């Protein structure tokens, strides 16, 4: 009997530890109810504005003003997923994409982490999340163009990885480059959008120009809309370069922006743990500026109440 009791106690302890490990971690680590997010501010000439303080901002959730609990302008370590379209249509553009991506990777700092993902017929992690930047850059250089385009699969898988619990605080972003429509994914755009809304991950979409004969097709227009929507919903930007030679400047701009964002957080006045969608708005008192952040979040959902067991 004593041995059985000890075994049951040990099993309960393991289960409790496992449950604690699986609890979601929030960016600001102060309260499970804290909503944390990144904010980008640009002026009328699209120049980054980095000299604001917390008094310059107002946060609203579903139209109700919230009190800012945390605010910083300091640089935060980055966790970036670099997604490269390696489908056959990228044959003549891949070298430019490789050069731009490797330049971005080499500009990362020691505390940052990067993961390289290629997507053609399938999604492949070429270099796992970490700070071995030379290995990541080499993985980019070794990519080859072939096959179809599993765009949504690649973004969905990347978001799932970034939603995993983590020990360290980091600003998370996905940079996805593609020149075409999704032709291979098992998940749809709505699935990707729903997952993106659950994550505090900024998506930067680089939509390379497709061939003229393809631009008139509905699926390419839909792909451009989808990438733009994902960027807009998460506070990112969509870039549509006319030529692959513009890629280097785009990746440089993304790198600078990620270093220039504000980090904020608040405890919602709406304390209901109902899993509902909450609309988020950030206003700034500086005239002539544009504020970008994610458009909302899903509130946490309370676990279902335990039902008493009946002894028979």
Kindly list the characteristics that best describe this protein:
four-stranded antiparallel beta sheet, six-stranded mixed beta sheet, 312 residues, 8 helices, alpha/beta, disordered N terminus, Rossmann fold, 26% strand, 2 domains, single chain
Largest sheet: 6 strands, mixed
Please indicate the count of domains: 2
Task: Classify the secondary structure makeup into a structural class.
Answer: alpha/beta
Named at the architecture level, the CATH assignment of the largest domain is 3-Layer(aba) Sandwich
Q: What's the order of the H and E elements?
A: HEEEEEHEEHHEHEHHEHEEEE
Question: Would you count the extended β strands for me?
Answer: 14
CA(first)-CA(last) distance: 22 Å
- Output the radius of gyration: 22 Å
The CATH homologous superfamily of the largest domain is named von Willebrand factor, type A domain
Please name the CATH topology of the largest domain: Rossmann fold
Task: Briefly summarize what is shown.
With 312 residues, the protein is α/β, with parallel strands linked by helices. It has 2 domains: 35-74 and 265-298; 78-259, Rossmann fold (3-Layer(aba) Sandwich).
